[in-house]
Amino acid sequence: MKALNEEIVTQKYRSRELYSAARRLSRESSFSEDQTAVDELEALRQKTDDLAKSSTQQLSVLEQTQPLVELFWQTRDNLLVFFDQFEKEIEVESLQPADDLGQVKLLQDTIQVHFHLIAWTIYELSQAHGT
To answer: Are 31 and 37 in contact (CB under 8 A)?
Structure first.
């Protein structure tokens, strides 16, 4: 995006040079009497300025969001690793069927511990990234 913004700024300066040359030429010839051409030149200059301003604003927004995007992907990767490990643990535990009330209670407690572990992991990730 920076390269595109630099190209737009470069084109803006080229446009200004052409605009100045056209204005100078119009003053030196009968072209200055044609108000339509002068208005078109002014409209072109205004569009060029607006485009350069918009490009600069968009670049600023992108630069501000880049750290958040990096944080998002880093957090996502951390959560994927965590959930992959968590899924393996759950698979091992789910292979053991509960035959009596004591085993059902044990599985419920284990699930509760897992929920707390998930909540704690998300909390730690948010604290590590200052959110």
So the answer is: yes
Question: Residue 43 is which amino acid?
Answer: A
The reported pTM is 0.51
Exposure string (b/e) for 52-71, b if CB count within 10 Å is 16 or more? beebeeebeeeeeeeeeeee
Q: Cα 75 to chain center, whole Å? A: 15
Q: Tell me: the pLDDT tens digits for 61-70?
A: 988 998 889 8
**Cβ–Cβ contacts within 10 Å for residue 42, how many?**
12
Which three-class secondary structure string do you get for the chain?
CHHHHHHHHHHHHHHHHHHHHHHHHHHHCHHHHCHHHHHHHHHHHHHHHHHHHHHHHHHHHHHHHHHHHHHHHHHHHHHHHHHHHHHHHHHHHHCCCCCCHHHHHHHHHHHHHHHHHHHHHHHHHHHHCCC
Q: Answer yes or no: are the C-beta atoms of 115 and 109 closer than 8 Å.
A: no
pLDDT digits (tens, 9 = 90+) for 11-43: 888 888 888 887 787 777 765 566 777 788 888
